Amino acid sequence: MKYVLAGASGFLGKALTRDLVADGHQVLRLVRRTPSTPDEISWDPAAGELDPASLGDPDILVNLAGANIGRPWTPTYRNTIRESRVSTTATLATAASQLDRHPVLITQSGVGGYGTDLGDRILTEDSELGEGFLSDVVRLWEGALEPARAAGSRVAALRTGVVLDRRAPAFQLLSLPFRVGLGGRLGSGRQYFPVVSLTDWIRAVRFVAENDTINGPVNVALPTPATNSEFTEALATALNRPAFVPVPAFLMKAALGEFAWELLGSKRALPTRLQSAGFPFHHPTVTTALSAALA
Q: Which parts of the sequence belong to the DUF1731 domain (predicted)?
């Protein structure tokens, strides 16, 4: 099939591109500069500019673009987080709506949309979005798909947990304290901490792309949710390192501000839509997901 990727230069974009090309699919990458290779297409999502004719006749559009949320959310950076997701999705959705044969449109999204701290409550794709900055971002982000949906495209939003792989920036940050012997749970450790292996994330993207019955929000996280304490114990074991230095909640809040709640809050998200469609996880537990990440 013919895929068009936004955010192809990021970690997830590069991994997905490698996997697709290895299986013989064509991948075109959207770039915000003058194209330098035949597989690049120029666009300007901040201005909403993407010539539909430049896409040809794609089967799948995938948006993985978005500024890193793992830094303090100043007023200026909040706008960057929001616009980097909404403008890219809206520009792709508008282009999809203008094509003669409307492609499938998939955008990355996040489990942070469910809210800050949901305790033991089970979160499926039918659960309501919560309150707070990231919840508002997810509403706008997924809402930007509407032009494509209205024109007849099948659309999906992947509400993804932390993707585990030794090369992933987020995982490197999480595992660094353990590698130097200073690892430990975050806050109480009782909060559910949604994660997924890179292998299963890639497989989920392709499964959604190829399965005509799946649309709307799709949780991409372990089918057996783990708490932060369970994740901590499994990571320490996998690295053969101790985990005796818990990070107090007050220290995380002081260092990270509001973003700390994304690590301290509990989100027991289940991939109900994937499993109902018959998606088999290769790494269904935190232990197997971490083993795959460190392999």
A: 247-292
The answer to the question of residue 253 being in a domain is: no
State pTM to two decimals. 0.95
**What is the CATH number for 129?**
3.40.50.720
288: in domain: no
**In sequence order, what are the beta bridge partners of 104?**
60
Q: Is residue 119 part of a domain?
A: yes
Residue 235 lies in a domain: no
Digit-coded pLDDT (tens) for 180-233? 888 999 999 999 999 999 999 999 999 999 999 999 999 999 999 999 999 999
For the chain, give the number of residues. 295
Residue 79 makes CB contacts below 8 A (sequence gap 6+) with none
- Number of folded domains that form the chain: 1
Domain residues for the domain of 23 are 2-163+198-221+268-281
Query: What residue type is assigned to position 95 of the chain?
Result: A
Confidence at 277, pLDDT banded by 50, 70, 90: very high
Residue (of 167, 164, 145, 169) closest to 155 by Cα position: 145
The answer to whether 288 and 238 are in contact (CB under 8 A) is no
| Adjacent-strand bridge partners of 216 | 156
Distance between CA 159 and CA 218 in Å, rounded?
A: 6
- Which residue's structure tokens are 């500069």? 33
